[in-house]
Amino acid sequence: MRSSGDGTAAGGPYTQHGSGADRAIRQPVQPVPVAGGGRSAASDGDGIGYRGPTACAAAGITYRQLDYWARTGLVEPSVRPAYGSGTQRLYSFRDVVLLKIVKRFLDTGVALQNIRTTVQHLRARGFQDLERMTLMSDGATVYECSSPDEVVSLLQGGQGVFGIAVGVVWRDVDAALSQLHGERVDTGETLVGHNPADELARRRNRAV
Fold this sequence. Notes:
alpha+beta, four-stranded antiparallel beta sheet, three-stranded antiparallel beta sheet, 7 helices, disordered N terminus
């Protein structure tokens, strides 16, 4: 079943089949503020947030999609939600990575219900774990693979049709945000052009 461009179509439950079933992301995981390396889950530890238009540009989505996903709880801004008219949502770096992952799943026809469960699962993972993860899907089930051997095993079992290397998405978002405006959470100062790249570089160094 294909979702609309806004991700508004409903999807069915996960199906279980084959040897890869043990790696399937089957049950919704309650989102919890987990952050690696002692970071703040709200801002990924660097005190920088990104407004809606910037998040859209980096994730390759429309503002309509961003707004719908926030209102339905699919991907909410973890730095600052919209409190009312005139309030700007503020997204963290990891939020933008999740937005881009959602977009890629929708483009390949994964049902929204399955995407929602996957997002909840990813939010419960540590910050650094996301960079090493590959998400595989046969269009009905999403599988988490943490090594090349697991990817090969899944493909040999017939479960995986396409995959999303989260580390690649991570780097794409990193490169995109380095060219866009960020905002300091504490002062509201706008970081123009390449200034956010310096902060992102420091974040990457802390993650090593």
